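[job 4471] stage=fold_predict status=RUNNING
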Amino acid sequence: MEKRAIIAFVLSLLVLVFWDYYFGLFRAPDTKPPQESAPSGPVSQAPRPTPKLPDTVVPKVLPRGQVKLDQHFPSWTVDAPLFSTQLLAPGARIHSVSLKKYRREVNPDSPPMQIVTTQPTGYLPMAVDLMNHSDWSLATRPFSSPAPEQIRLTPENPSQVLALQTEIPGEVRVTKSYTFSADAYFVDVEIQLENLSEKTLSDQMGISFYFQPYSPLASESSYNPSQLSSHEKGKIANHSLSDLEKKELVLKGPIDWVGYENNYFIQAVLPVEKQGYQVVARVLDPKEGLLQLVYLTEPFQIEGGQARKIPLRIYLGPKELTQLGKAEHQLSASVDYGWFTFLAKPLLLGMNWVFQYTHNYGIAIILLTIVIKVIFWPLTQKSFESMQTMKKIQPKITQIREKYKNDKEKLNQELMAVYRTYKVNPLGGCLPMLLQIPVFFALYRMLNAAIDLRHEPFMLWINDLTAPDRLHIGIPIPYLDGVPVLTILMGISMFVQQKMTPATGDPRQDKLMLLMPVVFTVFFVNFPSGLVLYWLVNNILSIVQQYWINHKA
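[job 4471] inference complete, writing C-alpha cells
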C-alpha cells in the first residue's frame, strides 16, 4: 500500500480521535446516581461539615442562607441599557439579573437571559454570614435603604451606588454597597461591618454565591457544559460536579477569579484584595447540580466603635471579550479556546470586523473562509500539484518497488532519485493538511464558543449558528430531530473533492479514502452549523481549485 495514502488516512484518524478526546464528541453528561439522595427544589437537609484541612481557616460548618420566597419582600431594581437587576431586602441579596441583549431561547419572543440560575430555589448570591455569630442570621435578615425602589442608569447617569443596611442593636451594623455601571456587567461591592458594642468583635466573614447549570442538568450538552472554573498564576482550572462531590474545593489567595460558566455566560467572583481570604466550593444538591461558593475572610478583630470594610468585585454577564476586559483581573482568560487561542481570538476579531459590514454572521463566516483559503492557496496548490506528479510517476515507482523489493537500501536510493528527478515530495500532499489543522481546530473552538454567534441566524432554516443544523420536516427522525441538510451537503462536497483528487493507483486505497466523507459527515452531524458552513465553503473552494489544476494538467 502506497505510503502517502497510509499517512493521509492515519492523520485523518488521528484528527478524529484527538477531536473526540479534546472536544468530547457525543459525550453524554454525567448522569450517575448521587451517592446521597437529595430532594429536588429547595434543599433543607442539615449542612455537611467541611473537612478540616491543614493550614486553613475553613470553619467546620459553613452556613447555607436560603431565602424563603413564598412571600413579598421590599426590593430595589436597577435598570441599565445592558441589564436589569433586582435586590431583595432579606440579606440585601441579588434576586435576578436579566441580560437585555440575550434571550433564553432562539425564539424571538423568548424572555431575556436570566444569569442568576438559582433564582427559583431561594439560594441567592451575596449572602453574608459571620461564622461566630450565626444566630444573627445576616444572610436573611431584612436590610433597608433610603434609595428609590427603581433606579435607572443612562449615559447621563452612568453609575449609581445602592447602599443597604441592617443592624443588630448594640452589636453590629452591616452596610452593603453595590456600585452599578450603565455600560458594564461587573459590580463593585463593599461590605462594611461596624462594631456597635464596647467589646472587641472577633469573627470571620463568609460571602456565599450559589450556582446551578444554565440548562437542566439532564440535558446539559458536552459541547457546552456548565462548570466551576478558577484562574490563578496564569492558568485556568476546571472543577467538575463529580470532582466537587468527592472533595470540597479550597483555594487560597491570590486568585484572579473564580466563577461558574458555560461557553457563553459567567458568574464570577473577582477578589480585590491580594491576600487574607480563601474560596471554598462545595456541592449542596448533586441531583440538581446546586453548588455553593464561599468567599471566606481570615479571622479578624474589630475594636469597639470601629469598622472594617471588605471589597469585592463580581461579574454577572456574557463572555464578551470587551466586557470581560472592562472587569480586569484577567477575566478575559475565561474565553478559552484551548491550545489554539492564539489563532482563535484573531479569527474572532476578523469575523466581527466583517460582520460590521455584512450584518450576517453566516456571510461573515463565508468571507472569512475565502480569506483563509486565499492565504493557504499556495500551499494547497503545491499539494495538488505534488499529487498530480505522484500520479504520473506511479507506474515507475511500482516498477522500482517490484525490481528492488528484496533490497531496501537500493529501493530507497532509486525512489529518492525518481523524486529528485521529478522534483516531488512524497509527503507534499499531507503537509498542507497538517498546517491547516490548527486553523480548523481554532475555528471550531471559536465558532462553538463565541457568544457573538449565539442565536445569530444565517438564512432559511438556520436560525442559530452555534446550534447543529436541522431542517424540521414534520416527521420525527430518531436521534437527529430534523434533517442535517448543511451537513449532508458538506459530506457530498467532500466526496466530490475526493473523487477529483488524483487516484493512487491502488483500488483498495481509493475505496478507503472514499470512506472519509462518510466518517466526517457522521462526526459533523452535531457540530455547530457555523463550523459546518465553514467546512462546506472550504470544500467548494477546494473543488474549484482542484478543477482548475486538473484542467491545466
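[job 4471] summary: Residues 346-384+429-552 form one domain.
[job 4471] exit 0
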